């Protein structure tokens, strides 16, 4: 297993006016994420509508927003914030938005941790692919988002075709790298 590009570095708590924020930088991308504190819906038209909101609503403004929202729904304990909205805003400062998903997920996860919003686990995203028959971490063939303590996959995006054995190799490499990256994140908080 090899690294195609240097791993990402990050900083958190960089936006004073946000509940949580994170900045991630890699050789190819720079990503900023800001998370607001859960706040009550300002306008609910009826008591029936009010009752439907027994957990927080996520408002995600980001490239790949539907994938980010799905991953966050597995990360955040939304039931702890009934009748609330949590806003997540991501800006790709530099780099290709199409290949930014792994960095976006990691920036969002770190910003949520920074905000103090209750989470189930720590979410780390890793990408991997094959080059000359070797697994390369950082290649974008497979993007995997993992809740690292429970080994739960909350995001998977595969481009191209791989056989069952190759898929297993990519997934294992992503899990191993996510565990390693988790230690780096854990040590920073």
TrEMBL record:
<dbReference type="GO" id="GO:0000176">
    <property type="term" value="C:nuclear exosome (RNase complex)"/>
</dbReference>
<dbReference type="GO" id="GO:0000177">
    <property type="term" value="C:cytoplasmic exosome (RNase complex)"/>
</dbReference>
<dbReference type="GO" id="GO:0016075">
    <property type="term" value="P:rRNA catabolic process"/>
</dbReference>
<feature type="domain" description="Exoribonuclease phosphorolytic">
    <location>
        <begin position="11"/>
        <end position="118"/>
    </location>
</feature>
<comment type="similarity">
    <text>Belongs to the RNase PH family.</text>
</comment>
<dbReference type="GO" id="GO:0071028">
    <property type="term" value="P:nuclear mRNA surveillance"/>
</dbReference>
<dbReference type="Pfam" id="PF01138">
    <property type="entry name" value="RNase_PH"/>
</dbReference>
<dbReference type="GO" id="GO:0071051">
    <property type="term" value="P:poly(A)-dependent snoRNA 3'-end processing"/>
</dbReference>
<dbReference type="GO" id="GO:0005730">
    <property type="term" value="C:nucleolus"/>
</dbReference>
<dbReference type="InterPro" id="IPR027408">
    <property type="entry name" value="PNPase/RNase_PH_dom_sf"/>
</dbReference>
<dbReference type="InterPro" id="IPR020568">
    <property type="entry name" value="Ribosomal_Su5_D2-typ_SF"/>
</dbReference>
<dbReference type="GO" id="GO:0003723">
    <property type="term" value="F:RNA binding"/>
</dbReference>
<dbReference type="InterPro" id="IPR001247">
    <property type="entry name" value="ExoRNase_PH_dom1"/>
</dbReference>
<dbReference type="InterPro" id="IPR050080">
    <property type="entry name" value="RNase_PH"/>
</dbReference>
<dbReference type="GO" id="GO:0034475">
    <property type="term" value="P:U4 snRNA 3'-end processing"/>
</dbReference>
<protein>
    <recommendedName>
        <fullName>Exoribonuclease phosphorolytic domain-containing protein</fullName>
    </recommendedName>
</protein>
